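ZP: hey, is the 5'-deoxyadenosine complex queued? I don't see it on the tracker
AM: it wasn't, my bad. submitting now with these inputs:
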Amino acid sequence: MQSAAGKTGRSRPLEFSGRLNRAGRSEMAELIRYFLEEASPEEISDLAFCAETLREKYYGKSVYFRGLIEFSSYCKNDCYYCGLQRSNSKARRYRLSEEEIVGRCALGRRLGFRTFVLQSGEDMYFTDERLCRIVSRIKTLFPDCAVTLSIGERSRDSYRRLYDAGADRYLLRHETADEAHYRKLHAPEMSLRNRMQCLYDLKEIGYQVGAGFMVDSPYQTCETLAEDFLFLRELQPEMVGIGPFIPHKDTRFADYYHPAAERTVILLALVRCLLPKVLLPATTALGTIDPFGREKGFRAGANVVMPNLSPPERRREYSLYDHKICTGDEAAECFQRLAGRIRKAGFVPDFSRGDPAGWRPRARRN
Ligand code: 5AD
């Protein structure tokens, strides 16, 4: 086994990044295993140094704010880890009206947000027609804001229409790039191939695309994580969403192992080194399992935070996992406190649109 300096190229972030970008399957799995299971605290901080240096090269100390609106908790899918899965009869279902969604954006705009992330389960009530109307209303009212959609798998045609209506970005975590692993986490009618195809379609249409996965999801191994890294390297997404898996009491994985934040932090740093220009959120899930989880994430290369802009009375009902934080500093109304914490940790809260470094928008049809 190589020395620590050999692993991260101590103080040589570009070289380490190059190594991750050349690694084959087994070397990738071995690097991931090493950092998750064997590395010393010094080696981990060396890795974080590499990640921070690369983030700073493109984004400085900025941490970008996005307002998250969870507009429907209905979902037609059965993802076995998720509290919103169709077969969870205990889940509370709600849908925001068009007026409520636009109203939450208006509130967000007044608070200073320039990106709205509209997220929901796969809710067929929201047809292309309804969604396009919502997106174009938001873009007409707030032309200086970006709209991000996170509404699951749809047809290429639907993605195209939403893009033409003004949507800028799309988040669709691939969840795992390993076929056998994917099968263990999802109902038989879902497919990894289709999910990956959606991501390629979105990219080709011109969206800024976000993929991603949970850390310590059931049956995850260093080999499946290596597949995730190889897939990210091929897709070259503009954003990557990574958060810890947190069991939900009404799912088959209710009693599953509850991970420590450190593992997510290591994987955030590795993803930053793999894709230096990526926009990388320190997720709510990370803030849920560790009160300083997000600060730890920023120190390991994360540079996005997504305060909750949903109607406060709905936040608890959008229950992907247990004990989701939603009333403290992560609430959009309390963003000043979150901004204060970010400053205290040595970073600069940034309320601009926060496009990827070097981003050149493609011409739209209309
Ligand atoms: N723990 C952590 N994250 C979860 N997600 C779904 N269920 C859980 C859970 N139990 C994540 C998925 C999904 C995103 C919206 O939330 O990765 O893509």
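AM: back. The chain has a mean pLDDT of 94.
ZP: great, adding it to the tracker
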